[in-house]
Amino acid sequence: MMDNKEKFTIQDFIMQLEQVNYIEILDAIKPLIIYYVTSKTLDTYSLHMDYKPKNISKVTLPPELTLEYSEVDINKIVATKYGESIIRFANVIIKNFPTEDLTNFYININNLKARAKNFGIQNLILKSKTAGEYDPKKNEITVDDDTAESTIYHELFHMASSIYKDGIRYSGFHQSSFKHGIGSLGRGIDEGYTELLSRRYFTPDSSVTCAYEYQVFIAEKLEQIIGREKMQKLYLNSNLKGLIDELKQYVSEDEIMKFISNTDFLVKHMDDKKFQLFEKNMIGNCLKNINRFVIICYSKKLQQQVKDGKISTNDEILQNLAEYISSLPSNIKIRKCKYEVMTGEDIQESLQASFENTNVTVSINSEEQLGIKK
């Protein structure tokens, strides 16, 4: 409830507005309108202006993750729904990942619950494309029987990288809670990397696309910065903070949080069926900022490799940059909307920011010089 002073202040402000040119007002507050008009933009405002959940800076891995497990009850798993797929997953993950990175997996696997569900009504109401879910609190996988073959391994990777502790869901690179002040962070990267691993180890030749195509692409570009072995280890150990710490070698924590929040916004909204102009502009800005972030991080990584003696010449730097940047699309089409997300000027600005105060000169005058994808 507002007190009299607050009421007077608002009324006084309204009276002042009546004396001013409204066109000038609209121009002045246009950026605020973009962030406030709808629930979508309210979400974005929260992510960008208060994008650091309190648990991130203080998080330590739950004690359970220091334990070691090495047994899988095959008979018990076979008896569950989708038992054959779960056994296949267990065999592949045990073969391909170090035991010390599978604590989450061993904690969850023997008590995992699996069930089928028709997501049709839920997707209709929420306007989503959900085909499967994993709940860390219940340790339960739910998949649509019609798409189980293509979705079960994605959800099993969620299982293998998740733990629920003190009201917080630690799931790969995603941390979320209904606790006040914690919220959600990292879903975009987590969904992309989960799907990337699912394809890498279980459906490498699959032509099936999913709702996370862009997130898979960005996760792969991020993995090129972090390194495959290290990124898989961080993911399986639910270590979002570890991922952030790795990226802090190259950019500030604020820049990392904004990058993560941009990927979170896109996973939530880029597939919406209808966009207002300001919403389209927000998606375009997110895409541009993500490209800029990965270019700067990768450039900084190359500089570090020079210091470590892994790269010895500027030509090697330029060759690696060309290969990396040329893999980033300059235009992205989402439904009927086309976004120009990277121009030669954008690249040049990113590279200048990356190589400032170094002995390396990088000059890109056109997209063609790097073979930028259209």
Could you characterize the architecture of this molecule?
The structure is a single chain. This protein has 374 residues and is an alpha+beta fold. It is built from 17 helices and nine strands. The strands form three sheets. Strands 4-5-6-7 form a four-stranded antiparallel beta sheet. Strands 1-3-2 form a three-stranded mixed beta sheet, with helices on one face.
Figure out the total of helices.
17
Query: How are the strands of the biggest sheet laid out side by side?
Result: 4-5-6-7
What structural category do the secondary elements indicate? alpha+beta
- Helix and strand succession? HHHHHHHEHEEHEEEEHHHHHHHEEH
Strand composition percent: 5-15%
Radius of gyration, whole Å: 23 Å
Percent helix, as a range, is 55-70%
Annotation keywords:
3 domains; 374 residues; three-stranded mixed β-sheet; 9 strands; alpha+beta
Short note summarizing the structure:
With 374 residues, the chain is an alpha+beta fold. The chain contains 17 helices and nine strands.
Strands, helices and their partners?
Blueprint: H1 4-17, H2 22-36, H3 39-49, H4 54-58, H5 74-78, H6 83-96, H7 103-109, E1 113-116, H8 120-126, E2 132-135, E3 140-143, H9 148-160, E4 162-165, E5 168-171, E6 174-176, E7 184-185, H10 187-201, H11 213-226, H12 228-236, H13 240-247, H14 253-269, H15 277-307, H16 314-326, E8 331-334, E9 337-340, H17 344-355
Helix pairs in contact: 3-14, 9-10, 10-11, 10-14, 11-15, 14-15, 15-16, 15-17
